């Protein structure tokens, strides 16, 4: 039996530590996925399984693998490989690891998708239609644009979005199936940070070492929902957060009281801090608040 660390991050979504290979990609055409925001934070899209059934998944760039609720595992033709013990900030429990034959976003699909089967009851309290979380084991195969104003995720088949988009290319550091970007933060102190790009969080999340280096004053104690239940956290604020040429002022930050059991740089950077984000996984860069190229 494997024992793996597993982080239920206090932003209504979990981050797993597994980066499982073996998926194959097939591209056909560009696709626009309309999404809805649940609890003002979670991007929920409809994906299709190999049998043609449609299911609602949370679109989460901060999660390294894909997670499905036990209630749909058989309908996804889940093939178990092993039982694992996982450790979170709150407790320890057991999950099944395995694969599903296929998962599709419009005309784009990935075969042999690695997944964990985990009870998502706490997340489904927010929206009973949610039955899974689609993470980087699926999303890293695509280039896409998340547009929060239009509630659209646009996936490109070639370079059509890149070629019609202007903006600064900010390099992605891919570490253990997570996207990290360099940034600089200022509070009472200053620090250079490596933050995971996360579409599943509403606030900047900082690890203890990062918050201590910035000397962030703790303003209040907050109760945050995780995939495993509620946790108590400290909340502070950043005076300035700089990512590339983008400067964000007076930003709320949640401060983790302990070091997590997975590597996540210095914390999490919410994508929803920006109007739109273009992610180019193939060339390793992102554009924050991209502009349409003028002819």
CATH architecture call of the largest domain: Beta Barrel
The fold-level CATH name of the largest domain is Cathepsin D, subunit A, domain 1
The tally of strands reads 27
Residue-averaged pLDDT: 85
Form type = globular
Strand fraction equals over 45%
Span between termini: 58 Å
Structural class: mainly beta
Largest sheet: 6 strands, mixed, barrel
Put simply, the count of helices is 4
- Total discrete domains: 2
Q: Tell me, what is the CATH class of the largest domain?
A: Mainly Beta
The CATH H-level homologous superfamily of the largest domain:
Acid Proteases
Work out the helicity level: under 10%
Low-confidence stretches: 1-29
Spatial order of the strands forming the largest sheet: 6-7-12-8-11-10
Q: Cα-atom Rg, whole angstroms?
A: 18 Å
Question: Any descriptors?
Answer:
295 residues; Cathepsin D, subunit A, domain 1; globular; mainly beta; single chain
Descriptive account of the structure:
It is a single chain. This protein is mostly beta strands and 295 residues long. It has 2 domains: 2-165, Cathepsin D, subunit A, domain 1 (Beta Barrel), CATH 2.40.70.10; 170-292, Cathepsin D, subunit A, domain 1. It is 6% helix and 54% strand. It contains 4 helices and 27 strands. It has helices at 121-124, 136-139, 160-163, 208-214; strands at 2-7, 15-16, 24-26, 31-34, 36-38, 42-49, 54-59, 66-68, 79-87, 92-105, 108-117, 130-134, 143-147, 152-156, 165-166, 170-171, 173-175, 178-186, 190-198, 204-206, 220-226, 229-243, 246-255, 267-270, 276-280, 285-288, 291-292. A 6-stranded mixed beta barrel has the order 6-7-12-8-11-10. Strand 1 and strand 2 (15-16) form a beta hairpin. It is globular and about 55 Å long. The chain starts with a strand and ends with a strand. The model is unreliable at 1-29 (pLDDT under 50).
